[in-house]
Amino acid sequence: MSSLAQALPNMCSFKEQIATSIADNDLFPGEMPIYVSRAPGRLDVMGGNVDYSGGTVLQGLLREATWVAAQVRSDEVIRIINPGGAQFGWDTRFEAHMSDLCDVDRVRALCKSQPSSLWVCYILGALYFLKNLRRFGEMGGVDLFLASDLPPNKGVSSSAALEVAALKAVSAAWGVTLHGTALATAGQWVENVVVGAACGIMDQAAIVLGKEGHLLPMLCQPCQPGPLVTLPAGVRLMGIDSMVPRSTSSIAYETARAAAFIGYKLICQHEGIEITFEQGGEIPRWTEKRWRGHLSNLAPSEFRARYERLLPESIRGSEFLDYGGEHIDPFTKVNPETEYPVRAAVRYATEENLRVQMVHTLLESMAWSGSESALPLIGEILCQSHVAYSECGLGSEACDELVERALKSGVAGAKMTGGGGGGVVAFLCRSGEEGTVRAIAEAYGEERGAVPHIFEGSSNGADTFGVEVLRPDFLWRRR
Question: At what angle do helices 158-173 and 180-189 cross, to 10 degrees?
Fold first, then answer.
C-alpha cells in the first residue's frame, strides 16, 4: 500500500529503488538471496459485492503494482522498509520480532500502536499466516523492502496487492512455494482475520491468477476461476479515480454486506432451511443444503417470484436480532441502531450474478466474431450495475457524475467498481476513445482543483510474474 510518485514498470526500476533507498537502513546485509515478487492492482469490471455472496465476478488487472523484496535473516528480527509511505504521512520503517507473531490479537495491537503504521498490518498478517498456519519461517526473521505505484484507498485492491506480494516473496525466501488459489485464500485470510476487513476472495484471486490483456471470470464458491477471457480488439477498459476514498472496512460497505446475509437468513427461515457453521474451512462461513451458503445461487426469477415481497425493504438491526437470531456472517456485526437495506442487497446478489454472466458471454462472442455490435448492450448492463450500488446504499455522487459524463460523451458504459461508496469508475469504450476518457478526467479534475489518477493498461498477475531471485551483490555494485 506504499506508493511512489514515479512508476515502477519493470524489474530494473525496482532494483534501482532498492539500491538508492536502503543504503542508510543496513537492509539485506547478508549473503542470502533476495526474493522479489510483484502484485498488480485490479479493475473490477463486474461483480463488485457478489464475491461474498458466492456470485460470479469478472476482473481485469492494472499496470500499477506493488513490489516486495524479502531476505531471510539469521536472527529473529522482522524489519520492513517502506520509503513511499512518506508521501502519505506513514512511518517508512517498522521493526518487530518473530515472537510478536504469537497470536492474532498481539499482531493487531502491534499494528495499531501507531496510527501511521497501520499499513504494517497487511505485512505482519502475512507473516503470521505463514508462520502459524503453514508452519513456515523456521529459518528466522526477515528483511522486507516495499515499493509501489498503486494508489491506496481508491478501490483498486492496493491492500490485496500488498498481502499477495508479501506472501509470495516471504514464502519463497523461507523455501516454500505459495501460488494459485492457496495464495489467494491466504491473502483473504489476512484481510478477514488480522486486518478485520469483510472482503471476499475476488481481489486476491484476480491479482494472483490474472494476465495482461485478459479478464478473469471466477465463481466465488469459494474460488473457482474460469478460462481467461481475451479483451476484444476493439474494446478498451480504463478507470478514473473519483477522488472519494473508499474501503472494505467502511460503514456503508459493511452495512450492505450484512444486509445481504440478513436477507439470506430470513429466506432460509421462511423455507425452514437449517443453516449450520461449516467445519474445517480455512475461511469461516455458514452453509445449508439448498443454496450451499451462497445467496447468489438464488436465481433472479425465483427471488422476484417468491421472496422479493416477502423481504422487508429495510429492517432495523434490533428487530432482526430479536426475530432472526444469530447473524450468519463471521465478518460483520449487526448494529441494533442501523437500518439494513435487505431487499435491495438480496436483489443485487441475485441480479448482479446474472449481469456478470451476460457480460462474460457477450465479451466472448465479440472476441470470437470480431463484431462490436454487442458493445452498447454491455455498456447498458454496466450502467445497470452502477445503479444497483445506490439501491444498496453504496452510491456516490462523484461516481454518478463520472458515469453521467461518460454517457454524455458517447462512451458505451461506465460503473462504480469494488465495494462502492467512491473509489474508481470503470469506463468501457472503443479503441480510439482513450482521449475522450482522458478529457473527462481532466474536466472533472479542473472543477475540483486536483488531477484524478487515470488507470489505463494492464499487466500480468502475481503467479505469471513469479518470484525473481537476486544475488545480494547487485546492491553493492550500485552503491
Answer: 120
Residue ranges in 370-472 assigned as alpha helix (H): 375-391, 397-408, 434-446, 462-465
Contact between 362 and 378 under an 8 Å Cβ cutoff? The reply is: yes
* Residues paired with residue 430 on neighbouring β-strands, in sequence order: 235
Give the CA distances from residue 168 to residues 177, 246, 465, 466, in Å, rounded to whole numbers and listed in that order. Answer: 8, 26, 11, 8
pLDDT band of 3, cuts 50, 70, 90:
very low
Amino acid, single-letter form, for residue 247: S
The answer to whether position 450 is within a domain reads no
What DSSP string describes 27-89?
A: -S-SSS-EEEEEEEEEEEEE-GGGTTTT-EEEEEEEEEEEEEEEEE-SSSEEEEE-GGGGGGT
Taking the CA atoms of 196, 199, 201 and 203 in sequence, report the sign of the dihedral they define. negative
Q: Which residues pair with 71 in a beta bridge?
A: 143
Half-sphere CA count of 340, side-chain side, radius 13 A: 31
Q: How far are the Cα atoms of 17, 150, 262, 311 from residue 319, in angstroms, in the given order?
A: 55, 42, 11, 13
Q: How many CA atoms are closer than 13 Å to the CA of 359, on its beta-carbon side?
A: 30
Tell me how far the alpha carbon of residue 193 is from its chain's centroid. Answer: 15
- Where in the sequence is the domain holding 37, given as residue range(s)? 11-231+460-478
| HSE, side-chain direction, 13 A CA sphere, residue 385 | 35
On whether residue 106 sits in a domain, the answer given is: yes
What is the torsion angle, in degrees rounded to the nearest 10, for the CA atoms of residue 276, residue 280, residue 281 and residue 282? 140
- Kindly report the CATH number assigned to the domain that includes residue 129: 3.30.230.10
Helix (H) or strand (E) holding 241: strand 235-241
- Mean pLDDT, range 381-388, rounded to an integer: 97
pTM given for the model: 0.92
Do residues 32 and 165 lie in contact, with contact meaning Cβ atoms separated by under 8 Å? Answer: no
Residue linked to cell 488531477? 451
Q: What is the pLDDT of residue 4?
A: 36
